[in-house]
Structures are given as C-alpha cells and as structure tokens.
Write a structure and sequence with these properties.
InterPro entries: ChrR-like_cupin_dom, RmlC-like_jellyroll, RmlC_Cupin_sf. With 226 residues, the protein is mainly β. The protein has no helices and 22 strands.
C-alpha cells in the first residue's frame, strides 16, 4: 500500500473525518495518514484501542514513536496517560493495550538506524522553551542532531510562523488555525517538505499542537529486513 507517500508535496489530512479501519488485533482500529507497505509498513496513523483490547507482544525493528491523545495506553513497562510522548527505538518490543480504551498518534519504521534513545515524556515533562510571539507555552519533548519535537499552545487569534529548513510535521490536538486556504482542526495532520514555512492564523479558541522539525525520512532510516 502507498498512501500520501510523496514527501515532496504539502500534505494535509483531516483525520477526524476518516473512517476507522480494523487492524489485525480485535478491538484495535486505525486511521491511516501515511503508509508505505502493508502490515509491515513505514506508517503514520491514529490508532484507537477499545476497552480491553491489546496486541500480542511484538518487536519494533524500525522503532516506534507515539503520543497518547485520549485515555491511558498500557504495556508491560507501565501506564501512559493522555499527553504522554514515547519513543521506543529500533530493537525494542512490547505487548500494547488499554484496559479502559485509548487513542494514540503513532509513527512506525521512521527512526534513524543508529537512534537508540528511549524517551518517555509524561504530561508536564519536557524542557520549557522561550516563548515566541503568540505562543502561550512551548515544551521541547525530544531533541537530537536532526530532530526537534515540540508541544505548544497558541494564543487565540495569533499569527504563528514556523521556519522549516528540514521538514515539518504537525498534528492539531485541540482548537484550530487557518493556513493557506485550509482550516485545521482537532486531529488535522499537516506535513510540509523542506523550505515551506508555516504561517498559522489561530482561531478564536486558540490551538494546541504537536510538531516535529526533522527530515521527513532520515537518510539512514531503518531498512526493512529481507
């Protein structure tokens, strides 16, 4: 399967409007945003776990990165409430599920091959960053030589500008903003190729966003095993 795989063009998906597609695990459904491959895939998705649902234990040879959007995600390492950001590097594995149900935003097979840092940033964690005009709060969740992952809250009716030297990916968590001729609302996902900056005109209720400044596909991205 190839879905939104052209990384050279501006890509916008209003994920809240997509149908839920069943996964191989009973009670686990997903909304696919980006995909190269079938069940083994480079993928970005929003995944919903029904109460009591789970996957069997499996590995993540290409790494896994996720943000808990609703509920509490669980595996054998602990409970991860809404707002938790996790990076499970290549070679890790787990048996994920949720006793009460949850929804996550997740990226698979998009780690650099040498990235071995595990990150768990719970709500309120992260490094507070100096505020730019129009920004109420700004937290750095992860930083490496090639990636900066941020969680920000934007003021109502503000104009926000993000430079984009390497590539930019953004998910609206709450609120809304206008960019170009589009209105982005809760769970709208935007991907911009390098060199296309973002100008956002924030709606009257403000906006909370997760975003990443990084190559859209690392030069040393984990390769699929034969």
């Amino acid at each position: 399967m190839l879905l939104k795989d052209d990384l050279a063009v501006r890509t916008l998906v209003h994920a809240a409007a997509l149908d839920w597609v069943p996964s191989p695990a009973k009670g686990v459904e997903r909304r696919m945003l980006f995909r190269i491959g079938d069940e083994k895939a480079r993928a970005t998705s929003i995944v919903r776990y029904a109460p009591g649902s789970h996957f069997a234990r499996h590995g993540h040879p290409g790494g896994e990165e996720f943000l808990v959007l609703e509920g509490t995600f669980q595996d054998e390492t602990g409970d991860f409430p809404a707002g938790t950001y996790v990076r499970n590097p290549p070679g890790t594995g787990h048996a994920p599920g949720s006793e009460d149900g949850c929804t996550i935003f997740v990226k698979l097979w998009q780690f650099g091959a040498t990235d071995r840092e595990r990150v768990v940033a719970r709500p309120g964690d992260g490094k507070s960053i100096a505020l730019r005009p129009g920004v109420i709060s700004s937290f750095l969740l992860f930083q490496s030589a090639s990636e900066h992952v941020m969680l920000e809250t934007w003021q109502p009716d503000a104009e926000i500008n993000l430079v984009n030297p390497e590539g930019l990916e953004l998910l609206v968590l709450n609120g809304s903003f206008d960019s170009e001729s589009d209105t982005l609302t809760r769970w709208s996902w935007l991907r911009l190729p390098p060199g296309q900056p973002l100008t956002a005109h924030v709606g009257p209720e403000g906006a909370s966003v997760w975003f990443k400044s990084a190559p859209l596909l690392h030069d040393d991205v984990c390769a699929f095993a034969d």
